[in-house]
Design goal:
Blueprint: H1 4-10, H2 14-21, E1 26-31, E2 35-40, E3 43-48, H3 49-66, E4 72-82, H4 85-92, H5 94-102, E5 106-110, E6 114-121, H6 129-143, H7 145-148, H8 153-164, H9 174-185
Antiparallel strand pairs: 1-2, 2-3, 4-6, 5-6
Helix pairs in contact: 3-8, 3-9, 4-6, 6-8
């Protein structure tokens, strides 16, 4: 049998074990609809929930696109919006359909000034579909369909992640906040969002 002093040196204390498993600690509250206040073994942690979730979504989208497994979520009732001339011209480009298909966004023309949204990327199905479609079409118009999935792919993924991330003033439950903390701990480069802002 080991002496108590030797045992205490080899066995981690509950606090050490807790801290190693969950360095961001556990959520206590949501502040100003934008931050999660958490406590770990060393003190308080303040997490920017939008920036943190944006990084998590970005990394998931990147992995799914790398594996060509970016699933789509079909909309039961297609949404439609009045589109600008540039949005209509961008959608009509032959390469645009390939880009949209790769990311799980199914858009089609409805008349001369309307675009229908029939599916969205499943990883960000809670995003505002119309805002997302407009942002993606703007990226394709700016960068060119041939480059948006190659040289400028990260910008497109950043656009998708930003629209898919939890928004300010959305009330989260304690389990949702804790899940966000656990997801951060399991995500590469989770200490900053894909725009470079610190997440905590």
């Amino acid at each position: 049998m080991q002496p108590a002093s030797a045992a205490s040196q080899t066995q981690p204390t509950p606090t050490q074990h807790h801290d190693e498993q969950h360095p961001l600690g556990f959520a206590l509250a949501q502040i100003h609809g934008m931050y999660i206040l958490a406590q770990n073994a060393h003190g308080a942690v303040l997490v920017d929930m939008h920036a943190a979730h944006e990084r998590i979504v970005y990394e998931r989208l990147k992995c799914a696109l790398d594996e060509q497994a970016l699933a789509k979520q079909d909309l039961l009732i297609p949404l439609h919006f009045t589109a600008s001339a540039i949005e209509m011209a961008t959608l009509a480009e032959p390469d645009s359909a390939h880009v949209l298909s790769q990311i799980g966004l199914n858009l089609s023309q409805l008349g001369t000034q309307e675009i229908a949204i029939r599916s969205v990327p499943a990883l960000i199905k809670q995003a505002d579909a119309i805002e997302l479609a407009r942002a993606v079409l703007a990226d394709i118009a700016e960068l060119g369909a041939s480059q948006v999935l190659t040289e400028r792919r990260n910008k497109l993924l950043g656009t998708l992640a930003c629209h898919g991330a939890v928004r300010a003033n959305r009330q989260l439950t304690l389990p949702e906040m804790n899940q966000l903390l656990r997801d951060m701990e399991a995500t590469e480069r989770a200490n900053q969002c894909n725009h470079g802002r610190p997440t905590w």
